[in-house]
Amino acid sequence: MVTTSVKTDTVVSVKDLKTYFYTEDGVVPVIDGVSFDVRKGETLAIVGESGSGKSVTSLSIMRLIPTPPGKIVNGDILFQNESLLEKSDKEMRQIRGNKISMIFQEPMTSLNPVYKVGDQISESIMLHQKASKKEATAEALNLLNLVGIPEPERRLNQYPHELSGGMRQRVMIAMALAGRPDLLIADEPTTALDVTIQNQILQLMKDLKAKRDMSIVLITHDLGVVAEMADRVVVMYGGQVVEQGDIFTIFEAPKHPYTEGLLRSMPTAAKKNGKLYAIEGTVPNPLHFPVGCRFAERCEYAKDLCRQEMPQIQNLSEDEVVRCWKYTDRWEA
Amino acid sequence: MVSGTSEKIDVQNRVIDKNSEVLLKVDNIKMHFPVRGGFFGGVQGYVKAVDGVSFDLRKGETFGLVGESGCGKSTTGRAILRLLEATSGSVEFEGRDIYSLNDQELRILRRDMQLIFQDPYSSLNPRLSVGDTLSRVLKIHGMKSAAEREERIKELLELVGLNSFHMRRYPHEFSGGQRQRIGIARALALNPKLIVLDEPVSALDVSIQSQVVNLLEELQDRLGLTYLFVSHGLNIVRYISNRVGVMYLGKMVELANSNDLFEDPKHPYTQALISANPIPNPRLRDQPKIILEGDVPSPINPPSGCYFHTRCPYAQSKCREEEPAFVKAGEDRFVACHYPLS
Questions:
Q1: Residue B298's pLDDT band (cuts 50, 70, 90)
Q2: CB–CB contact A198 B281 (8 Å)
Q3: In terms of C-beta density within 10 A (0-12 exposed, 13-18 middle, 19 or more buried), how is residue A231 classed?
């Protein structure tokens, strides 16, 4: 029914974003020309290893980059067709929590240990909506119900340390949903949780996405979670997008050698000569990125061209984007 | 003792000769930590972190120990090395009860049994160069000559895929994967027979994990090592283990060959764990999953009967009343359940 509008409706559009950090050792291009769209009602997964820039991308959208040392030096972030970079701090506070919410990996560090759970949720409701204390508490109870917390009345009066890790993450989700956001950014939301609890939280996020008609940006390093959740995938490496595509293309016909390597190195993949496939080497130091392709030194297919010149991002089809020399005219030349 | 150790272990099919010699025998170990509180700080109860666990490690095998946080898998790993003193039960290493050894005998035995940690950064001294870290281990265990030690350090670094020039460097100069290699080199320094690996790849990036896993398998083949691989990551445990034990609330609920366990789990908890594990294949995501209700109960006040009955989709009245024994459930497998799945 909504399939046609889903395709065209863009919630967030990140355009050639560059977020640099100015450190004593030099300028670190943590995000170096990243572009992608998040469509209405979809779950977009951003995948990458530590240092690939996936978390800084989400913090940039939230305008939560610590400045200094960090700074958005180029590009734009459009949210519902308005530039977030031109918003004042006051306007951003209105957007955060109301329109865009974020949940983090470790709920314990994002909850205030000295306030009761109920007070923390109702505070965020009162901040973002014109609600009385009484209305806010009633809404907090609704939200705890919505995220499937047993005995919600009792939980309202408990402190974060009295809850288990899974319960805390549910509370965080409840708080994030308080303002009825159009976009939920979830940064490794289940990484700290056990697998049976992770499963509960992922199912909850799926249900809520449908109920609230939200878009989700899911940041994770876990390809199992991606396969479970995402409609489309952005693969990051060395501060850049190296591939972008729909979930099935990424898993079944990956284009970039890095994506291919990640999938082949999963312990569930087929063994070759009794060994697990491994991408050799390590992630390059962002202070000294190579001039050419940032993956070249670890790439099985790399040629001189790859080491000498940076490949540009290009569209292979409407939905498929890759940054690799293999898919250009110059590869065979 | 039964012979048959010379037979090559078929890692590909994960079959370990059943008659292979037992290296370590764990018999009903319990690890209870007192909980103090109240005005006088008296003992209020016990956290039963490990509550009666038994298994064997066969020479040359990789035994995977899985379970969620708080199930006692790491504590079990430490108790069998006697890094923690078990409350009761026995651990025999090559036929000797390690809990009957005095300090000096234990120190000598430690050469045979080593531990590798999850986070190699916090387990390496930041003020010591890699060479110094390894040198200390060798010196404490009696390698007096400095030249001999240096030779051995070079050999160890090369064994784990690093270079001899790395010995002058400090832990912060290495990446996570390289640090784990140093942790492995340290564990190998004294030619151990058994290594307990506590979440050895969980902190590493996906592309680095497979490098370390391959190294561990290669070292096992070359040096004839036996591994106890403790992890919450089911995919990696399935991949690397010959046999797997599943723990829940301080008890082992199931033990079987890796393939049998993952293809045909007998315990409802094992089944739920496998079902909850996200598979990296988007075509399978709409498969029905078993979603366990609630959280793991507190190990201070575990439930009556079968500890899993509060979350078990198949629980019946007997499960609430009577604790199931850990019994044989087929060829080389055990399960603790009144109504095992068929």
A1: confident
A2: no
A3: middle
